[in-house]
What does this fold into?
Amino acid sequence: MQNVQSVERATAFSVQGLTKIYGTGETQVHALRGVDLDLPQGELTVLLGPSGSGKSTFLNILGGLDSPTGGTVTFQGRDITALDSNGLTQYRRDHVGFVFQFYNLIPSLTARENVSLVTEIATAPLRPDEALELVGLSDRMDHFPAQLSGGEQQMLTIARTLMGNPQIILLDEPSEGLAPVIVQQIAATIRTLAAEGLTVLLSEQNVRFAMHVASRAAVIERGRILVEGPIADIAADEGVREAYLTP
Ligand SMILES: Nc1ncnc2c1ncn2[C@@H]1O[C@H](COP(=O)(O)OP(=O)(O)OP(=O)(O)O)[C@@H](O)[C@H]1O
Ligand SMILES: [Mg+2]
It folds into this structure.
């Protein structure tokens, strides 16, 4: 008889009581108001929320780019909020790939040169042509960003992220402003990465894209997680569909 095993995944990130306050006095903004969230290793989770809900703030803190006002973020058992700036630099270099909301490509460098930049800082980098092949840009290596479509530029930023051989990939609204056909390509690329065992967290405002890529979802509004669970359950929720099912 076959042994039926339930797959209990290890936790990559455990976030507890995370708060972020920007500014002081009257101009204070409470961007995160006590976020608790566990992200299983090797899962693809989407953080679904409207503009200003705290998505970028949350991703930046998990990526070691910003520090919280309060709370803890444990990555593979280590509290990254306790790291000093050297520790954070090492954490980013050795573990994290970050795809920013705005592309951040260097216009005067070709696709190959843009991804090659990472080899100077990464501990175990891929070859530029390997990374570009993974996102389907093998034939555009010598083109400059301005010669690529918006979708191709987004693929290039994903290739640059893969160069560092990360264990976690954080993508901040990777489908924003892109045509549906390109969005499908990006979704397929992201799914391939998760299938290879990477832990992926992406932020998104549209549940339709989320359904195509993610296995889990957490809904964030005004700096708080409202609901989390398997994407099928979240996407079936009336309230979520009303708020996040944009055409
Ligand atoms: N550096 C900052 N200084 C002050 N307030 C900030 C700063 N960065 C973000 N905020 C505020 O914190 C809140 C959360 O912002 P955040 O960028 O995390 O939202 P978001 O969900 O990523 O939005 P979007 O979908 O528009 O990118 C917003 O009210 C924003 O105005
Ligand atoms: Mg944002």
The longest helix spans residues 180-195. The chain has a mean pLDDT of 88.
